[in-house]
Amino acid sequence: MAGRAQPSGPAGSGGGAPGLLPLLLLLLSAAAIIPRGDGQNLVTEDVTVVEGDVATISCRVKNSDDSVIQLLNPNRQTIYFRDFRPLKDSRFQLVNFSNSELRVSLTNVSISDEGRYFCQLYTDPPQEIYTTITVLVPPRNLVIDIEKETAVEGEEIELNCTAMASRPATTIRWFKGNKELTGKSEVERWSDMYTVTSQLLLKVGREDDGVPVICLVDHPAVKDLQTQRYLEVMYKPQVRVSQNYPLQGLTREGEPLELTCTAFGKPQPTDMRWLRVDDEMPQHVVVSGSNLLISNLNKTDNGTYRCEASNAVGKSHADYMLFVYDTTATTEPAVHGFTQLPNSAEELDYGDLSGTSVPPTAPTEALPTVQLSNASLASRPDSRAGEEGAIRSVDHAVVGGVVAVVVFAMLCLLIILGRYFARHKGTYFTHEAKGADDAADADTAIINAEGGQNNSEEKKEYFI
């Protein structure tokens, strides 16, 4: 530990010493003080203590020669001279005194006690070293302020955590559940104290409802200091449709069908109703609260039945596609039960869908079409998936066969035409000018030609 020479003045005292002690102290402190360094006999260490705790100062001598040891405060008042305490401060207590050590404790440490404390050894020449007491102050208060006590799903809210009057400045960390988040901190200094405020912007969803947001402090004076607030998030209903009867198998003509609609949201949905999409609700359908009952199914009941629920935040729905089969139908559907559709792709992330889906195998043209907006819904097979796949396979085979026949016929036709044109290719000679070789001119050749113009009608050739 680096040191420097310290001037030594009269050693102060809180209440004075009897007899010749004040004069002795004055004479001893008037001597020159040698700075500490290698080879010195005095040893001490710096002390770091939390406000309110106990600090222990130790002045030790390596090679004791029975010299006098004393301890002075930052104001150079004598706290202890050997085992005698001139300073009237009961917070200083002698822990150990011997020829080789003077150890003193200071209870209930405060900021005012911070500074340098001097150990002096009255040798020839005298020696002096100092030890520094550093006082740590934990945050006085840790508070989370939240912009809105109740937020709506999708909103961004602001949270502020404040750690007041600490020393040194604290570091604030944010957690949502077990996940650490990043905030923005600002530090203000007041005298020797620091106040730190951290701001967190958080976009909330329905999964955040009831989750604690934790403000945690990192500070050398304190461990595990934290405070938390629980999020309260309102969100629109989650709707599910379940088929009570038949539990499995086909929905056949003449049999009953019972559906139940359940909805959960915050606040709890207050309005729930059944309707038939793109059509009127059949008169024989009985709706009782969240239940829908059709006691005697027939093909006119085919369609999509929707359960809607709403609360103060918004409205949601789930759909059930019904296809009624003949009583003679024996084929099991690809997937039993119902098809439940989300209101948006977002609802898929919250597990809105439950159960398995819809109408059994049936002719393609008789089924209503429902278009899903999410890949996870597309993975749920439709009730007619098996038969539609078989029909598509048959159609493709027929079309492929027809195309093959047409291509074969065209190839055969091309081969026949090629052979025909090959046979009639060459040079052809006619007898129109026969006997005109010796004619003097063209006119004479025409007149002398066999048959002449009189036989022109008989000399016709036809090219096939």
Structure commentary:
The chain is mainly beta and 464 residues long. Helices cover 14% and strands 36% of the residues. It has five helices and 25 strands. It has helices at residues 21-29, 345-348, 375-378, 385-423, 442-448; strands spanning 42-43, 47-50, 55-61, 68-72, 78-81, 92-97, 101-106, 115-122, 127-136, 141-146, 151-152, 156-166, 171-176, 179-181, 184-190, 193-203, 212-219, 222-230, 233-245, 257-266, 271-276, 285-288, 291-294, 303-310, 315-322. Strands 2-9-8-4-5 form a five-stranded mixed beta sheet, with no helix packed on it. It is elongated, with a radius of gyration of 53 Å.
**Average pLDDT reading:** 78
**Looking at the structure, what is the overall shape?**
elongated
Low-confidence stretches: 1-39, 334-391, 454-458
DSSP strand content: 35-45%
Radius of gyration: 53 Å
Order of strands in the sheet with the most strands?
2-9-8-4-5
Provide a count of the helices: 5
State the distance separating the first and last CA atoms.
126 Å
Decide which structural class fits the backbone: mainly beta
| Helix content class | 10-25%
Assembly state: single chain
SSE arrangement, N to C: HEEEEEEEEEEEEEEEEEEEEEEEEEHHHH
Number of strands: 25
Largest sheet: 5 strands, mixed
Which helices and strands occur, and which strands form pairs?
Elements: H1 21-29, E1 42-43, E2 47-50, E3 55-61, E4 68-72, E5 78-81, E6 92-97, E7 101-106, E8 115-122, E9 127-136, E10 141-146, E11 151-152, E12 156-166, E13 171-176, E14 179-181, E15 184-190, E16 193-203, E17 212-219, E18 222-230, E19 233-245, E20 257-266, E21 271-276, E22 285-288, E23 291-294, E24 303-310, E25 315-322, H2 345-348, H3 375-378, H4 385-423, H5 442-448
Parallel strand pairs: 2-9, 11-19
Antiparallel strand pairs: 1-3, 3-7, 4-5, 4-8, 6-7, 8-9, 10-12, 12-16, 13-14, 13-17, 15-16, 17-18, 19-20, 20-23, 21-24, 22-23, 24-25
